[in-house]
Amino acid sequence: MAAALRWIAWALSALLTVGLLVQPVGPEAQVGLCAVACAGMAALWLLAPRRGLPRLAFLALGSLVVIRYVYWRLTGTLPSLDDPVGLGFGLMLLGAELYCVLILAVSLVVNADPLVRAPVALPQAAALPAVDVLIPSYNEPTELLAVTLAAALNLDYPAEKLTVWLLDDGGTDQKCADPDPGKAEAARARRAELQALCRELGARYRTRARNEHAKAGNLNNGLAASRAEIVLVLDADHAPFRSFLTETVGLFSQDPNLFLVQTPHVFLNPDPIERNLRTFARMPSENEMFYGVTQTGLDKWNGSFFCGSAALLRRQALDAVGGFSGITITEDCETALDLHGKGWTSAYVGQPLIAGLQPESLADFIVQRGRWCQGMIQILMLKNPLTKRGLRPIQKLAYLSSMTFWFFPLPRLIFMLAPLLHIFFDVKIFVSSVDEALAYTATYIVANLMIQNYLYGHVRWPFVSELYEYVQGVFLVRSIASVIASPRRPSFSVTAKGAGLGHDHLSALAWPFFAIFLALAAGCGMAAWRYLYEPGVTSLMLVVGLWCGFNLVIAGVGLGVVAERRQDERSPSLPVGRPALAVFGSEQVPVIVERMSTDAATLRRSDGAPWPALPGDGFQGGVLQAADGPPLRFSLRAAPAPDRRVVAFAALAPAEYRTLAGLMYGDAGALRAFLKGRRRHRDLLTGTLRFLAWGVAEPVRAVSYLGKRAPVQPAPAPSALAVPDAQRAVAAPADVASERVPDVAAPLLAPLAEPAPPVILADEIARERASPVPASVAALPLPAIQAAARPVEIPAAVRPEGRPATGNPVVAHPAAQPAPASAPVAAERLPGDLPSAAASLDETRLDEAVWRRAIADLLAAAPDPGGALRPDAGALDATAWAASIRALAGTGTAPVPIAPPPLDAAPAATARDALRDALAASRNAA
Asked: Average pLDDT in the 34-59 region?
């Protein structure tokens, strides 16, 4: 009874308020009323906390101004029936405005009282549920998958209750039997390679017969093989932090009806807009508005939904609806809608617990957003939440807001182009005096901006939403039309990530943006000319010209977005702040890993002292030892400060990915501090000035790119974990787990001691494969080679409790080695038979003395030089060194002595350059 009376009181109050708001008043009274409302909003903003009753009062005052504007637009601004053209375009503009007001109203309801959940402790170890980690993959590189798998295996959770599955849709039976021999071979190679990777890491591999129902079908295939009570879904590029499960699993023990715990998606790299405007380090990313505000608002109403990754789901709930839904191409939101309709509940944890990748190029970005757009509209048309049984009214409203949002391209383009109708063709799209237009429109815009900045100012700068909508809207209009015409036609498309951009250039999608910019610029010029010189033109032309000018600024910033800047980082890096030990020769230096990527890291000395001089002033390599796992081999890349060094990692073995993932994803604190640092509230004044500055500068930069052509994307580089052709045939059947992969694939995962020189040499040998091999050389056995190693002493500050002070053996001076001694180097076993010569080498570590002995034995077995002096194996010569490597590989003789350069010799260039020079010299001499 009390609840009914409360709702009746609210309804009467609302009717009374609306009745007062629709009373007709003059422009002066309108300005006065709205000024009072905006002043009240400002007072609440500055003086009251942004929660509870003050928050609701702020939103109510802003809503009053919005309602006044809507009433005026509906009753006094439409053209008459005598002007059918103006009425038609006027109704189109009014519809776009009403859509925006609807989205605003729903967002105010959803975000009126957001829910921020307190941390939940884990239950006792015996009561912890088993967790299956499902990582669906399609065409991602092996190195990217290795990082995600390693991070998932490093999760802080009992090992006996954690199983990591790689669900490979790129190596299905369907793909392995493709009619195109090249595609079939690539699929078989991928399957063998990933099976071997999973076996080495300790993960489970699973593929299926056919690629049906895209990602949803792949996940359901994983569900059929796994058995754990809780399922963690991770995209292939979403590596989890170590604490993911400890911060989320406890929620399932609190609510037995909970089907979902969703966490934010956080990205290591900027999206194309952030990169091209250079805002990634100082402006919140676009998705932070959704994950930082909207999802917390939805969570209040049990409306937070599955976003495809970084989420835990209860198997019992998934079984109740037949697994992941696959009718639409957005299986995540569709699955959540079905489960909410069955009475299950969801929860949202707002702490960043994964780090992933975003599309680098604008074209890939548009493909991704087009899929999201079509998928959400598919759900709206095929599973309309308004008619969905089991949903509460507020849940229906929440889902409706998420789906109808994706119609934004239509009103955005209408707003961009509508003023041109009046400027060029004198179409009256609305009827009003200048005083009324300013009194109602200006106050509405001010109140709207205040509401947006109040709710989202810490995660979204002013006018950035308009920019994102414009950039996407130019192309998503076609996506909307396509899905409306045929709701079941859209197909799932995988977003390309990690492609890299090596040059400044204009995007292939740039021309529509230049056309719109030129049209708006012409519109502004025409409006100014007509206002100043054409008789009979009223001040309304000035208002429309200002509107066109604002659109021109947005279009100008849009030109900056399509002017693609090159990407400096080959692999996106992450703030880390983890302790480790750097070893240079005999020096052991405790360091803090400040930033880290899969191929480089920035190291800062823990004590702040300068780095020691390098031994011999020429040794450029070392190892990085973490608390757990084998060390990571590196070479120096740069010295940005006396206490800092930037190092580049050598190619990683599977076990070393566990070390890398432990450093990068061991603690989310550094990433959270970075995100918090850029969530600085940008007020309306400074945000507007910043946007205007972009509008002036970015078109100039875009024009300067007109002569720069988009680079042709190179073919993907061979994987560092590549499996040669000779072993690709051992790929296991589709349903086999990684532990059943044949042992023959394991040796291919051995680490490369020094990656660059062997690759150069192997390529040279492959090119010379056609040359005949002398029988005397082909029959020579190679001497046995042993690796020279010494232990690393690990300081107690870095060493975990109970671990001995000596870590994994570290090779002091690694170098490339030829094939094992037990096998003669015969012509039929040369690398020319393989697609990648580098992949066939059996690289290990050796020192200079062993190398000298190997060369000496080779020279001793060489034919008699016929009276000439036999070469001395102790001589040091770069050209002879390269020639003897060929001899050891079986592609040449050894007429001159070879040994690696002494460690105290100062090289003229890097090892890679020196070897190239030596190889070139030997070719010229021949």
From this structure: 94
Question: How far is the C-alpha of 815 from the C-alpha of 301, rounded, in Å?
Answer: 62
| Per-residue exposure over 86-96, b if at least 16 CB sit within 10 Å of its own CB, e if not | bbebbeebbeb
Look at residues 327, 130, 133, 306 and name the one whose alpha carbon lies nearest to residue 219.
133
324, 238 Cβ separation under 8 angstroms: no
Mean pLDDT of 48-71: 93
Token digits of residue 216: 């949803």
169 is catalytic: yes
pLDDT at res. 66: 95
**How far is it, in rounded angstroms, from Cα 431 to Cα 554?**
26
Q: Which amino acid is at 477?
A: V
**Which among 367, 679, 363, 608 is positioned nearest to 494, based on CA atoms?**
367
DSSP string across 429-490: SS---HHHIIIIIIHHHHHHHHHHHHHHTTTS-TTHHHHHHHHHHHHHHHHHHHHHH-TT--
Give the burial class of 590: count Cβ atoms within 10 A of its Cβ; 0-12 exposed, 13-18 middle, 19 or more buried: middle
Active-site hit among 237, 271, 299, 332: 332
Yes or no: say if 920 and 849 are a contact pair by the CB < 8 Å rule.
no
Contacts of 799 (CB under 8 A, 6+ apart): 627, 805
Task: Specify whether the CB–CB gap between 583 and 625 falls below 8 A.
Answer: yes
Are 495 and 367 a contacting pair, CB within 8 Å?
yes
The per-residue pLDDT for 496 is 65
Q: Which residue has the higher pLDDT, 644 or 12?
A: 644
b vs e for 462-497, b when ≥16 Cβ sit within 10 Å of the residue's Cβ? bbbbbbbbbbbbbbbbebbebbeeebeebebebbbb
pLDDT of residue 772: 44
Tokens of 71: 């009433």
| Buried-state track 632-647, b at ≥16 Cβ within 10 A, e below 16 | bbbbbbeeeeebbbbb
Q: What's the rounded Cα separation, in Å, for the pair 756 and 911?
A: 8
801: which DSSP letter?
Answer: T
Report yes or no: 232 and 768 within 8 Å, Cβ to Cβ. Answer: no
SS3 647: strand
CA distance 403 to 397: 10
Residue in the structure block whose two tokens are 């990591």: 164
Strands (E), 515-567: 563-564
3-state SS assignment for residue 261: strand
Cα–Cα distance between 586 and 615 in angstroms, integer? 8
Measured distance CA(543)–CA(442) in Å, rounded: 11
3-state secondary structure of 312: strand
pLDDT above 50: residue 904: no
Residue with tokens 């071997």: 196
* Cβ proximity of 326 and 216 under 8 Å: yes
Please choose, from the candidates 516, 535, 536, the residue with its C-alpha nearest in 3D space to the C-alpha of residue 419.
Answer: 516
Three-state secondary structure call for residue 708: coil
The angle, 0 to 180 degrees and rounded to 10, between the axes of the packed helices 362-382 and 464-485 is: 50
Alpha-carbon gap, residue 246 to 231, rounded angstroms: 14
Task: From 376, 419, 372, 371, select the one nearest 401 (Cα to Cα).
Answer: 376
Mean of pLDDT over the chain: 81
The residue type of 244 is F
Q: What does the DSSP 8-state code read for residue 793?
A: B
Q: Which of 169, 237, 599, 847 is catalytic?
A: 169
- Length of the chain in residues, anyone? 926
Which residue's entry shows tokens 């599309």?
A: 359
Amino acid residing at 213: H
pLDDT at residue 361, rounded to an integer: 93
